[in-house]
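Contributing: when you submit paired examples, paste them exactly as shown. First protein:
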Amino acid sequence: MKAIKFNITGTTKVYGLIGKPVSHTFSPLIHNMWFSDLGLNSIYIVFEVSPKNLKKAVKGMKALNIQGFNVTIPHKEAIIKFLDKIDPLVELIRAANTIKIENEQLIGKNTDVEGALKSITDKKFDLSNKRALIVGAGGAARAICFGIASKVKKIVIVNRTVAKARKLAKELTKKMKVDAIGKSLSKITFKDELKRTDLIINATPIGMYPNINETPIPKEYLNDSMFVFDLIYNPLETRLLKEASKIGCSVLGGIDMLINQAALAFEWWSGKKPNINLIKNKLAFLKNDVRE
C-alpha cells in the first residue's frame, strides 16, 4: 500500500475540517491519502472551532486562502449564514458540510445526502414504504431526513430538545409531503414507536469516541427485523451496532457514508475522482481501533 507522502511548499493548497470535537476524525487520513495517491500538492488538516468562534474561523479561512473545508458537528446549520453562495440542496435542507472558496467567495454544498443514500443502497436496503426513526435533529439528521423523505412511508424524529424535532418534522411535511412527526428522546417514545419501525438511523454523537460505551437506544427496544444505521464512524462499530447485530439486525456503520461524502467533496475541490477502495482497504486495518 502506498504511504502518504508530504512535500510542503509555498504553493501547497490547504484544505481542512472545522467542528468540535474533531480529535476522532478520519478525514485527514482519507483526504491526504487521496492527495498522495494522485500526486497533488495539497494537504488536509483539522481545526477545532467552537460555536462562538465560527464567524471568526470562516473569515480566517478566506483570509488565509484555504481552498476548501468540510463542516461537522455542531456547525452544519450555523455555517450557512456566513456563505456567499449555496446550492439548491443546501437551500432546501438548510445544512452544509462542504465549502469551496473560489474568487474570495464561500460556496456551500451538502454531500451528506448522496453519501448516505449510496451507503444504504450499497447495503441492498430498500427504503420504499418503510417507517424510519431518526435519532437527532441537527445538520446530519436534516440531510438524512430530506434524503429519504421521498422514498419512505413515515419519518419519526426523536431529539432531546423535542421542539427542534417537531420543527424539522413540520418542514419535512411541508416541503417533502412526507408523514413526519417529532417526539422526545425517551424510553416512552422508543417503547411506542420501535414496535413499528423498519429503519433506525442514529444522527447524534451518542456513542462516538471517546464515549464508546454510550448508546442512543437501549437494546431491549431493538428487534431482528430492523435495519440499523449509525452515522458514527469512530469507533467503526458502535455499541448500538454491536447490540443490534447480536440480536440479528442488519447494520450499517458510518464509515461508508464518511468515505462516500468525502469522495464527492474531494472531486468538487480537485476535479479528480479519488480511489475509494484505497481508503476502504486502509481502514480495514483499523477495525478494532477507536482512535485515528
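Second protein:
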Amino acid sequence: MKRYVVLIILGLIFLSACERETIIMPSEELNQIRVAGTATVKTSPDIATAQIGVQTFSKEIEPAIDENNKKSEAVQEALRQQGVAEKDMQTVSFNVYPQRNYINNKPEEIIGYQVDNTISVVLRDLKTVGRALQAAITAGANNISGVSFTLADPEPFRNEARVKAIEDARQRASSMAEAAGIELGKVISITELSQPGPIIVRAAYDKAAFENEVPIQPGELELTMSVEMVFEIPS
C-alpha cells in the first residue's frame, strides 16, 4: 500500500511541475507564416435589374384578374418597345389575395380581391433604364422595387481582385519575414476567404419627380476578394 502512495505522490509532483512549465511539442506548423491579403477592384455596372409589378383590386375576382392581365401585358409591351428582349423578362410571382373587412372587425367578410403580377426585368442598355421604367409605369405598373445595377459577367473582375489579393498577401508576408529577420520560403497553401456573390448597387428613385423618365444613377461597383496564404519558413 505504501508503494502505491509513493507512486501517486511522485505523479502529483510531476503534474505540478508541468503546470508551471510550457511544453512545446514538435510541429511542422512552427515553421510556417500565415497571412491574409485583400484587394478591391472598382468598375462601372453594365446591366440593371428591376422587379416590375401590377396590382389591381376589384370586388369580384374575375374583373380583378382581367384588369391585371390587360395592364401586365401592356407593361410588357411597353418594355419591348424600349428594347427589352423576351428572355430578359421573367414572371417571378402571381398572387390573388382576398381582401377582408378588418376595419369593421369582420375578417370573415370578403370585400374584394387583390391581384399581383410581378416580373423580373434585365435592362442591358443603361442609358434607357429611366425611360424604360417610366414607360412601364405609364402602361400600368404600380409596384416597382429592387432596382439595382450589376455586372453581366463579374468573373473577370473577380479574377483581377483575386490576383491582387494574392499579391497583397505575399507583400505582407515578405514585410513580416524581413522585420523578423527570417527567410520566406515557398507557398504551402492558398485559401480564398471571399464568398463570391452578386455585385449590386441599389438605385433610389422618387415617384414625385417623374417627368419623361425615372431619374437613375448607376454609380460605381466595388468588388472585394480576400485570401489566406501559408508560407514555409526554411530551417
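If you have annotations for the second protein, write them as plain sentences, like these:
Residues 155-180 form the longest helix (26 residues).
The radius of gyration is 32 Å.
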